[in-house]
Amino acid sequence: MVMRWFKENVWAAVAITLLRIYVGWQWIDAGWHKLTGGFNATGFLKGATTKPVTDHATQAVIFPNYTYFLEHFALPNAKLINVLIPLGEFLIGIGLIVGGLTLTAAFFGMMLNLLFLFAGTVSTNPWLLLLAFVIFTAGANAGRFGLDAYLLPWLAKGWTKLTGRETKPKTGGMNGKILPH
C-alpha cells in the first residue's frame, strides 16, 4: 500500500521531484568542477590500490576484486577514467534535474557512489547513495514532473514498434483506472 502510494501519488511525485533536483544539483556541481578544474584520477586510483579497504582486525583486503580492477584496468586507463567520471557525474546531474531518463541517472549515480565507497572514500557517498535509492524506488513517478512524462511514452511506442509486441495498459490505483506507463 505504501509502495503503491509512493509510485503513483502526485504528492509523492512532487516530493521526489524536489529530492531529484537536490541530488541532481550535487552531481552536476561535482561533475562541473571536475570538467573545468583539470581533474586527474591517477592519485586517487593509486591511493585506493596502495591503501585498499581492509579489515581492521586481520588487515585482509575486503574488496580484492575491486582492487584488482583498479590496478589492472582503471590505472592503466586513467586517461579514459579522467573523462568518464566527470562526464558521467555531469550527465547524471542533468538527467536528475530535468527528469529525463531519471531511473537510468539514479542507477548510474548509485553505481558511482558504490565504486567510490569500495575505493574507501566516504564523503557524501553514503548520503547520495541513499537518496538515489529513494528516487530509484519511486519508479516512473520520479520523472512524472520532468522530461520522462514525454520521453517514456515515446520510448514505449518505439519499443513496441521495434519488438512488434503490443504493451498492455497497467490497471490499478484507487478506481481501477488505466495508469500511464
From TrEMBL:
Broad class of the protein's primary localization: membrane
Pfam family, one: DoxX
Keywords: Membrane, Transmembrane, Transmembrane helix
Signal peptide: none
GO (cellular component) term, any one: membrane
Compartment annotation: Membrane
Its membrane topology: Multi-pass membrane protein
Superkingdom: Bacteria
TM annotation in the entry: 9-28, 90-115
Keyword Membrane in annotation: yes
Protein name: DoxX family protein
Keyword Transferase: no
